[in-house]
Amino acid sequence: MTATLQDLRVIAAGLDHPEAVALGPDGMLYAGGEAGQVYRIDVQTGEFAEIANTGGFVLGLCHDAEGAVYVCDIGAEPGIKRVDPADGTVTAYCTSAGGGPLETPNFAAFAEDGTLWFTDSGTESLEIRNGRLLRVPPGGGDAEVLPLGELHFPNGMCLDAAGRPVFLETFRPRLSVVVGNQATVLCELEGTSPDGVALTADGGFLVSCYYPFRLMLVPPGGGDAEVVLDDPTGIHIPMPTNVCFFGEGLRQVAIASLGGQVVKSIDLGIAGAPVHYPELPTR
């Protein structure tokens, strides 16, 4: 890895503390804001537009084949909101799990069959471990809770090369994969607060850390993580919360920083794996 902080470039500036960034099927980047904004970003010009507003606080984002945006929103009514790509209409996609309310829907990812996986982080209390990993059937509705035991603020997630959900726990810092109904640890991330994760082309995982401000690479199959970008001052990537791959060959990494107002990019010499944009039942 030869990239440094000097290789970072600003894609878009003036966003309202973007927590997430995601690549849409149109090749555009999408990000959220802390006042409910959903932004579409032209990666060539850096121009962006607010295409919708949920009225809450936007965390993770993902898309279906039609370009609809599925937003993890922690406003007054926490849930997964669907944003129509044509007119920005916001509708509820999932507002409950096991018949009960959601607390902190944080990050979501579609499986190839249209199942939507997402983390409900639960409370931010260090003393309470009430996070959950959930799945929503294609078309939306009540989510199923996976019986994984106590999860301590599950956060960013993705699907691995085999289609299995992989997720981070921020307050018990580690990366785990779900096999059957059991979470198996891939990597311990002691001394960090990991937040976001994206699958690499070779089956590894690029992890963004809310603290300290850095990106780390976990090898395929798990093992020790390597720091591939570090910002000890917190000036360049303040609170990097989520990452995604974009551009030709998915060789550019977009970085959302909750502590700033920009989305930046860098070429780390790592290619990303394509995400799923499933065809969903007509609503």
Q: What can be said about this structure in brief?
A:
0% of the residues lie in helices and 47% in strands. It has strands spanning 9-13, 21-23, 29-32, 37-41, 48-53, 58-63, 69-73, 79-83, 90-94, 96-97, 100-101, 105-110, 116-120, 132-136, 144-145, 154-159, 165-169, 174-179, 182-188, 193-199, 205-211, 214-218, 226-230, 240-246, 252-257, 262-266. The termini are far apart.
Helix content: under 10%
Mean pLDDT: 96
The total of beta strands comes to 26
Give the overall form: globular
Q: Could you tell me the strand content as a percent range?
A: over 45%
User: What is the CA-based Rg, rounded?
Assistant: 17 Å
Number of helices: 0
User: Order of helices and strands, N to C?
Assistant: EEEEEEEEEEEEEEEEEEEEEEEEEE
Q: Spans with pLDDT under 50 lasting ≥5 residues?
A: none
